[in-house]
Design a protein that fits this description.
By secondary structure, the protein is mostly beta strands. It contains three helices and eleven strands; from the N terminus they run ββββααββαβββββ. The structure holds the ligand Nc1nc2c(c(=O)[nH]1)N[C@H]1C(S)=C(S)[C@@H](COP(=O)(O)O)O[C@H]1N2 and molybdenum atom. Ligand MTE binds next to loops.
Length: 165
């Protein structure tokens, strides 16, 4: 008696997409495979979660700085003070989000080796979405997984009453 040997293969879930938005000359919609176009870095990190204790992971991916710089933040790159007014809002698809300052990742300032991970412990993040990796953080809360939006924001007036329109 013959039997069907092949089951229909369920369609693969779509690739996650990351939107780079805000005060950028070149906003972009990137997949995790797109992030392989930048130089790749590795980091072994340990961080503590308030609820589940210490975690150890190995990540690889481009520097957040390299990816955002290529999106063209709307500051004058030759003026260091101009860059100090920019924030980077990193958000997961579940709404968890954190703010970094541009100066935190800028080589002229704190130069933190923050990664936009394309893989965790050897597993690609193509469908889960990229993950923020801050090797210098003791706490795990900024290791945002499933990032779907990174917004660069340079609209910070020096005084609240200076806000216009
Ligand atoms: N998208 C998203 N990322 C997140 C969180 C979250 O709630 N949503 N929690 C953070 C916290 S509090 C910790 S400690 C780490 C936990 O990482 P792990 O799941 O690899 O242990 O993920 C971080 N990344
Ligand atoms: Mo946590």
């Amino acid at each position: 008696m013959s039997q069907s040997l092949t089951q229909p293969t369920p369609p693969a879930p779509p690739l996650a997409e990351l939107a780079l938005t805000g005060d950028l000359a070149r906003p972009a919609l990137l997949t995790v495979p797109d992030l392989l176009a930048w130089p790749q870095h590795r980091a072994r990190v340990a961080f503590e979660c308030a609820t589940s204790g210490v975690r150890h992971h190995g990540f690889e991916g481009p520097l957040l700085y390299d990816v955002l710089r290529d999106a063209g933040p709307r500051f004058d790159p030759s003026r260091r003070k101009d860059r100090l007014r920019f924030l980077v809002v990193v958000a997961g698809a579940d709404g968890h989000h954190a703010l970094l300052t541009w100066a935190e990742i800028d080589p002229d300032f704190a130069d933190a080796p923050v990664l936009l991970a394309v893989g965790i412990d050897g597993t690609p993040l193509d469908r889960a979405g990229p993950q923020l990796v801050l090797p210098q953080d003791r706490c795990g809360a900024r290791h945002i997984s499933g990032i779907d939006t990174i917004r660069v924001d340079g609209r910070h007036p020096s005084r609240p009453d200076a806000v216009t329109g």
